[in-house]
Give the backbone structure.
Amino acid sequence: MGNHELWGKNANVSSRELLNDIFPTLGNEYGFTYLEHTNLIVKDTTFVGTYGHFDYSFLKQESSVTITDLLRGSLNINGRQIFWKDRFFMDWEGRTDQSVCAELVGGFEQRLKAVRNTISISHTIPSLGLHGWPESPEQLFYQPYSGSRLIGDAIERSGESHHFCGHTHAKAKAQMGKTQVINVGSDYNVLRYVIISSGEIQERQVSFLDQYLS
């Protein structure tokens, strides 16, 4: 799942229900492997995944952004109000973002440790270096919502060849231990993907709108 799939508050459905009940049931009904609960084995490769969430571990202490701003989900920058909509549309039934993130990443690491020859996946990013955007007042606000160091720690302890993530809509790469980590960086209307062939990575990009207009 990505963060938008967990926006259930306006429909009186909690994010916990969506993540742990509704989407697993849909996965079973339509024959999908739900990576939040179960690994996917394809020949000799195991795919291990998690949504991941965020825990504010990417908040830069020297910035003007505070934890109060992040919990409120809005910040005034030069008279312009910007927002983080997860704060308004997610409902974790009273649990903190930190506890949700720790639980999800803990389960991810257990599934990752149990197998070898893995490719792992998270929606949110495992390192601030994978955020992908130039620093600005806006990005100092958005960065703490982009992921968690817990994901990166799990990858460094238990990961193998590749880890893929997204969430920030910007391309980035990093090496974490023995794992090459790639933020594919798909954006609205732009699908970016990579092809791994004989250990080499090729990047591709497709614009849905361009395809439609052509």
Q: What stands out?
A: The first strand starts at residue 40 and ends at 42. The radius of gyration is 18 Å. The first helix runs from residue 15 to 30. The chain has two domains: 3-183, 189-214.
